[in-house]
Amino acid sequence: MANVLYVKVNPKTDEASFSARLANAFLDAYQSENQTDTVTTLDVYNENIPFIDGDVLSAWGKAASGQELTAEELAKVTRMTELVDQFLAADKIVFSAPMWNFSFPPLMKAYIDNIAMAGKTFKYTENGPVGLAGDKKVVLLEARGGVYSEGPAAELEHTQSYLRAVMSFIGITDFQLVVSEGMAAAPAEAEAIFSKAEAQAKEVARNF
């Protein structure tokens, strides 16, 4: 039995979100093949996802010198530890997110800042950083209004390339991608475009 963590990154309803619809199709297909697996949803727009702010930076500095943290500092770093521990406890991670302004929504970056934690998911050595996240599988289910996988806008894609790099940095190389793109550029064809990505998501899910 595997532990699956679904990280949902969209404040829209599922019906109004192409990325959430893609994830739902993926998870339905996955669970039909893996009925004993546990799927836990982390909806970053409805959960406490700390930003690296003044309190967090202060807490890290104090912790390094053995100083006492304020209640606010302690609450934030405790929550960050909870999130990275949840990530590490998962065998497989499913991300669903849109592209906004050539990158991920801000809470996706905030979540990554929580799980890219020295001593937890990576460590520094004399030979450089080493990933500690273990043998996990990751899939990103992404929706983009334009086309960024090829063509003149490809250099503006800073989503899957970023997440793939972060996962590799923390030791995860089993990374798969399903993208539905171009729906805003060709609204009359949006559902047809999505249907192709949905079929791909279901196929990937069966072997995930």
Q: What can be said about this structure in brief?
A:
Quinone reductase that provides resistance to thiol-specific stress caused by electrophilic quinones. Also exhibits azoreductase activity. Catalyzes the reductive cleavage of the azo bond in aromatic azo compounds to the corresponding amines. The chain is built from six helices and seven strands, in the order βαβααβαβββαβα.
Structure description:
This is FMN dependent NADH:quinone oxidoreductase. Homodimer. FMN binds at residues 17-19, 99-102. It is an enzyme of class 1 (oxidoreductase). Its EC number is 1.6.5.-, 1.7.1.17. The protein is α/β, with parallel strands linked by helices and 208 residues long. The chain has one domain (3-206): Rossmann fold. The protein has 6 helices and 7 strands, in the order E-H-E-H-H-E-H-E-E-E-H-E-H. The protein has helices spanning 18-33, 54-65, 71-89, 106-115, 160-169, 190-206, and strands spanning 3-8, 38-43, 92-98, 122-125, 128-131, 137-144, 174-181. A 5-stranded parallel beta sheet has the order 2-1-3-6-7, sandwiched between helices. Strands 4-5 form a two-stranded antiparallel ribbon. Strand 6, helix 5 (160-169) and strand 7 (174-181) form a beta-alpha-beta unit. It is globular and about 60 Å long. The two termini are 13 Å apart. The model has no long low-confidence stretch (mean pLDDT 97).
